[in-house]
Structure formats: structure tokens, C-alpha cells
TrEMBL record:
This is Sulfatase. The conversion to 3-oxoalanine (also known as C-formylglycine, FGly), of a serine or cysteine residue in prokaryotes and of a cysteine residue in eukaryotes, is critical for catalytic activity. One of its GO terms (molecular function) is arylsulfatase activity. Belongs to the sulfatase family. Keywords: Hydrolase. It comes from Candidatus Cryptobacteroides excrementavium. Signal peptide: none annotated. The lineage of its organism: Bacteria, Pseudomonadati, Bacteroidota, Bacteroidia, Bacteroidales. Residues 32-383 form the Sulfatase N-terminal domain. CDD domains: sulfatase_like. PANTHER family: ARYLSULFATASE FAMILY MEMBER (PTHR42693), ENDO-4-O-SULFATASE (PTHR42693:SF53). The modification 3-oxoalanine (Ser) is found at residue 91.
């Protein structure tokens, strides 16, 4: 693990009302509200607008045959990134990086959180975006899936026990002292039952609404926006995080989606559904695509309802709205059953659409945004670039979005990280990580290097995304030494920047790859 210290910083409260423009009414607040919506496992291609002439030239692939009218309309009012990626495309690691702006080894979330991986949990000393915004005068709310902490025996209704008696235990309750500045809470750890979700509220009371989770969470978000029952402090700008679980699995039956959404895809055959030529429809997972697309449409409908309420309340003009995801979904591409945790575009690439009326003009932008960049960029967009913690390892890319003349160097590549379980003790408890693969993506190429447990070379993936947008032809790296060397140098640079274990342990040099020491 890394040995960097995470600084704890105190933000001066003097003059806070002037910074936020706070009065008794949210309409007078000058600092922007922030609405951050990120469904789980929503891949970049699952947006219909990519097939429209305005957008199609920015990608070399065809959009999925999905119905996303609300997201299509939202995109027409926003900056749409065509090169946003999930640095570590797994639920928990992505969330740890998003919340802290730090890579997994520093924020503590190195693997998907569950009880057999107690070391993988969000560091309570880490400074999260919600900590910064709360100290800067914001009222912060969280709705939906968190999945950033190891389950603990802290069930508020049954002290000394897990909230879920199953083994292994995935679900978790987050007590107030571990909520990192979030004032209003309606969340859970992990519970993949889309039509029978549950949540713990601010006071630790459990709620079982027995309805489609995306609809219910949108209802709660609308309650937060309306503030009819004092859900938030109307004298402060708000930061609301909405973490939908769908279109994450399960996607096997009508228990996993809404019938009205499934009906849109029910009569489509595989030739119509699987437009990506790299998909293997003989896999057992193939029927899942109709349920997956149904949940994509379900998310779209509820996101549209959320935007409509924001506009009805007159909050849309002063609210930064982001739609993104923690990672994608391979859905039978490349012959894998694993939906995530790979550098293939279906997993690694994510939507990133951001609207800020009057501040950001609509366009498609090729900025290569990575997960560690999200936190500092949102703070920069809110005018809080001076409050970005020293612990943050990402970059503030807000000048790119705002086009305000501030200096900002756009990234030339992005880093990819895949960790697996480290050693297991006699009880099956995981200790440490095995850093199986690291990769890099440039404006044209994608490369991944993976190793065996003895750190011998396992495989090299190398794709020309311009000539081969579906990544169907792995370029023999030994036949292209100059290209491979250049990409190795780019990867080594990103590893050094991240102070990654591959850099510290000189893994590329041990593999005999031509990189500078």
C-alpha cells in the first residue's frame, strides 16, 4: 500500500455567506447546486444519441438500440465527453476514487467491498468531495447504493450484527460518523434486488418500499429538491448524489426491470439487439440484453422526471447536473461473462455528460477524463478550485468545460487498474491485493499488460481504436516494437504519476519492458 499521508485540512468559515451568497432562500444563492447522478454499470454506448449525425463522427462505433429520449435531450444541452473512462472499472474502487480524487491504494478501496475483504474500505480519514462541499457551505445528500465500505457488525436495529446474515456479506450500513459530510442520508451498501430495495435514512431507520428502486430513489430525490418536509437547508446550495443500482445485474427476468420498458425490446431478435460485432450471442448471458436495455430505459425515464422537477422548481438554471456511471457492461462482447473489470471499451468507457446553463456551451469534447479527475473538476466548476485538498491525485479540468481562459493541460492518456484478491488466510479473509493488470489509453490506442501471480508476463492487449473500434484484432506487440515502446513509456508515466504499486515495485522493468528506470 502507499505511504502517502492524507492531510486533514480545516476550511475557514469566515465570509462563508459571501462565498455562497447564502440568504434564507435557495433562489438567492450564487454558488451552483450540484446534482450528480450515476447509475451502476451503464456503458457509454447505451445512449441512443450516438447514432445521430451530430455525435456519430466522434466515435467509431454504433450506439446500442436503446430508447433514451431524456438523456438524448439532456445531451443536447450539455458537454458530452466521448473519452471518459473508469480508472478501475469496479463498483467499489470507482466510488472510492470519485469521492476522494485519490487512487485506490490511498483512499483504501482497492477491491469490491465485502466482509471477506475487510482491508478494502473507504479510509475514514480521507477527505471526500462531500467533506469539502459541506465545509464550503453546501448541504449534502446521498441517495442509493454506496458500496464503499466493508460490512461491519453495526446494524442499528440489531447492534453487534451484520445487516445481512448471508455469507458472504455484501450489504452494509454507514453510520453518521462515516458519511463524510453528507447531511441527509438514504442509502445502503449493496443489495441487488431491483424491485425490493431497502435503505437506511439519516437516523438509521430502515425503509423497505417494495417498488422499483430507480423510481423510488427518484421520488426521494424529488422530495429533497422540493424540501417540503425540511429535507435540506434551503439557505445553502445543495450537493445531491443519486446512485441508482440498475442497469446493474441481475437481469434475468421481469423481477429485474419494469414491464413497460421490457416491452420495447421483447420482440427484437439478437441481430437487432447485438449491434456490436464483437458480441458472442452463444454465451449463456445473451438473453440478459433485453433486461439490461430495459433498465437503461428505466433509468432514462426517471432521470427525465428528475430533470423536469428541477426545472419546475426553477432550480435548473443554477444547478450543475452530471450523468455518468461507475463502469460499463461488456454484455457478451469479447466472449467474456464478466461485465466489468476489463480495459475493453464496453467496460472501461463510461458516459460523462454535464450541464451548467450559462456557463458551459453544448458540444462534444474529446477530453480524456479519468475517475480521479471528477472530484477536483466539480470543485473547480463550483468556483472552489482553491479548496481542492492536497490529497487529491486527479486534475481539475474545469477550465476545459468552462472555456474561461484559465490554463489547463488536457490529459494525453488515461490509466487503467485491475486488482484481484491478495493472499487469503485460513478463514478465507483477503489480505492485500494482487495487481494483475495495468493499462493505458491514448487518443488512438488501448494497451493492457497483465501478469501471473509470480509476476511473469501473462498477456498483452493492444488495439488501434481508430482502425478497430470494436477491439476485435489484438495487435501483436512484438511485431510493432516502436508503437509498443511508446505505449509502455506512456503507461510508465501514468504509473509514476499515480505512485502505483507497478511503479514502486518496478514491475515493468522486471518484465524486461523497454521503459526508463
Amino acid at each position: 500500500m502507499g505511504n502517502r499521508k492524507i492531510p486533514r485540512i480545516a476550511y475557514p468559515l469566515a465570509g462563508l455567506a459571501a462565498v455562497c451568497g447564502c440568504s434564507g432562500d435557495n433562489s438567492a444563492v450564487q454558488a451552483p447546486n450540484i446534482l450528480y447522478v450515476f447509475p451502476d454499470q451503464f456503458r457509454a454506448s447505451a445512449l441512443a444519441f450516438w447514432n445521430e449525425p451530430e455525435y456519430a463522427g466522434y466515435v467509431g462505433w454504433q450506439a446500442d438500440p436503446v430508447h433514451t429520449p431524456n438523456l438524448d435531450r439532456f445531451a443536447s444541452e450539455s458537454v458530452v465527453l466521448n473519452s471518459a473512462v473508469s480508472t478501475c472499472p469496479l463498483s467499489s474502487p470507482h466510488r472510492g476514487i470519485f469521492l476522494t480524487g485519490m487512487y485506490p491504494e490511498r483512499n483504501g478501496v482497492t477491491l469490491n467491498c465485502m466482509n471477506l475483504r475487510p482491508e478494502s474500505t473507504l479510509n475514514p480519514e480521507a477527505i471526500c468531495i462531500s467533506d469539502v462541499l459541506k465545509e464550503s457551505g453546501y448541504f449534502c445528500g446521498y441517495i442509493g447504493k454506496l458500496h464503499a465500505e466493508t460490512p461491519m457488525k453495526n446494524d442499528p436495529a440489531n447492534p453487534g450484527h451484520y445487516v445481512n446474515g448471508d455469507h458472504p456479506v455484501w450489504d452494509a450500513y454507514t453510520p453518521p460518523e462515516r458519511r463524510h459530510g453528507y447531511d441527509w442520508w438514504y442509502s445502503y451498501g449493496t443489495h441487488d434486488v431491483h424491485k425490493d430495495p431497502h435503505y437506511w435514512d439519516t437516523d438509521g431507520v430502515r425503509h423497505d418500499p417494495h417498488e422499483y428502486s430507480v423510481r423510488h430513489e427518484t421520488d426521494k430525490a424529488i422530495e429533497f429538491l422540493r424540501n417540503e418536509n425540511g429535507e435540506r437547508d434551503a439557505g445553502k446550495p445543495f450537493f445531491l448524489t443519486v446512485a441508482y443500482n440498475p442497469p446493474h445485474s441481475p437481469y434475468r427476468s421481469m423481477e429485474d426491470c419494469m414491464e413497460e420498458d421490457y416491452a420495447l425490446y421483447a420482440d427484437m431478435d439478437y441481430d437487432e439487439l447485438y449491434v456490436r460485432p464483437n458480441a458472442d450471442t452463444t454465451l449463456s448471458k445473451a438473453p440478459s440484453i433485453r433486461y439490461y436495455f430495459a433498465n437503461v430505459t428505466g433509468v432514462d425515464r426517471e432521470f427525465g422526471r428528475l430533470l423536469a422537477e428541477l426545472k419546475r422548481l426553477g432550480l435548473d438554471k443554477n444547478t450543475i447536473v452530471v450523468f455518468t456511471s461507475d463502469h460499463g457492461e461488456t454484455m457478451c462482447s469479447h466472449g467474456t461473462l464478466d461485465p466489468k473489470n476489463s480495459i475493453w471499451a464496453e467496460s472501461y468507457s463510461v458516459p460523462f455528460i454535464i450541464r451548467y446553463p450559462g456557463k458551459i456551451r453544448h458540444r462534444v469534447d474529446n477530453t480524456m477524463l479519468s475517475t480521479p479527475d471528477i472530484m477536483p473538476t466539480l470543485l473547480g466548476l463550483a468556483g472552489l478550485e482553491d479548496r481542492i485538498p492536497a490529497s487529491v491525485e486527479g486534475h481539475d479540468l474545469s477550465p476545459v468545460f468552462l472555456e474561461d481562459g484559465r490554463a489547463c493541460q488536457k490529459p494525453e492518456s488515461t490509466l487503467y487498474i485491475r486488482n484481484l484478491d491478495g493472499e487469503k488466510d485460513s478463514n478465507g479473509i483477503v489480505h492485500g491485493i494482487f495487481p494483475q493488470a495495468r493499462g493505458v489509453q491514448t487518443d488512438r490506442y488501448t494497451m493492457e499488460i497483465s501478469v501471473n501471480r509470480d509476476f511473469s508476463l501473462r498477456s498483452v492487449l493492444l488495439y488501434d481504436n481508430e482502425a478497430d473500434p470494436y477491439q476485435m484484432n489484438n495487435i501483436p506487440y512484438k511485431d510493432h516494437p516502436e508503437l509498443f515502446s511508446a505505449l509502455c513509456e506512456a503507461l510508465a508515466s501514468k504509473l509514476q504519476e499515480a505512485d502505483d504499486i507497478w511503479h514502486r515495485d518496478r514491475i515493468m522493468q522486471r518484465l524486461g519492458l523497454a521503459v526508463k528506470p
